[in-house]
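Teaching assistant here, posting this on the class forum so everyone can see the example we discussed in section. The complex has four components, and the goal was to see what a joint structure prediction looks like when all of them are supplied at once.
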Amino acid sequence: MRIAEVSEQYAISSDTLRYYERIGLIPPVNRNESGIRDYNGTDVKRVEFIKCMRSAGLPIEVLIEYVGLVQQGDTTIEARKDILKEQRQLLVARMKEMQKTLDLLDYKISVYENAVLKKEKELIPIEL
Amino acid sequence: MRIAEVSEQYAISSDTLRYYERIGLIPPVNRNESGIRDYNGTDVKRVEFIKCMRSAGLPIEVLIEYVGLVQQGDTTIEARKDILKEQRQLLVARMKEMQKTLDLLDYKISVYENAVLKKEKELIPIEL
DNA sequence: ACTTGACTTGGAGTCAACTCCAAGTGATAA
DNA sequence: TTATCACTTGGAGTTGACTCCAAGTCAAGT
């Protein structure tokens, strides 16, 4: 799979994919004879994983550490689990914050809806 | 209320509070005789609102637009409602993404837990 | 043979949102 | 009176995460 295909499939720009590789978030992708990236199944899976994690706001630094540990093999399983657990906890905290904000937004929107209704009533006398 | 108190109460740095005022996210706060900010109830409420919205990731630009409309009075109620509704929808979308990520994290963590259990079993022979 | 188009690189630029700094002021404590 | 301390300003610097660019390579189509 060429970079443009991966880019399209996951809606990540080619620039970003190269950037991820440059900073070590994705290990060096294999190249064909003319030096062009050829993403294999493992590469694509990793892109998918990164995309998912990034979409939830996990920092790139943490993800670099995590994929580094994955590369190092089974001895790092505990460390990897710890990272995921910590990020999970931070994610839950962020979601709770967002839920609070959502509740406030819903309340404010309902207040505005009522304000609009009231205005409409004023414009249309009861007799009609 | 002096800036340091507001800062402490809402865990927002004084620098950030001054920054918010400078960019128009908070309207100019009243000063005492020596030019020092004295936040009144309305100011504090606004800080609280901003903090809540920012913690959920609503962009500063959007919030500036919103508080600008609030300043302009009742004629802007529809526009304000539209902004809040749009941001609500974006927020729900982000939360859905995060829920997907949370599910994947939980799955991965459970896989790691099992891997650890398996390792422990290997170390402790059945006979014991 | 030449153009087109997708790729390559290293490095610079951008953006949002802060965060820090130097130099100055004014009220209180020793 | 002098030191301390919280505040003030305008402006510069930082951070995280991209995003863009110029110059070059290579394979395929006309």
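For the discussion questions: Residues 13, 15-16, 19, 34-36, 54, 59-61 of chain A lie near DNA strand D (CB under 10 Å from a C1'). Helices of chain A lie at 3-10, 14-22, 41-55, 60-71, 77-123. Think about how each of these relates to the inputs above.
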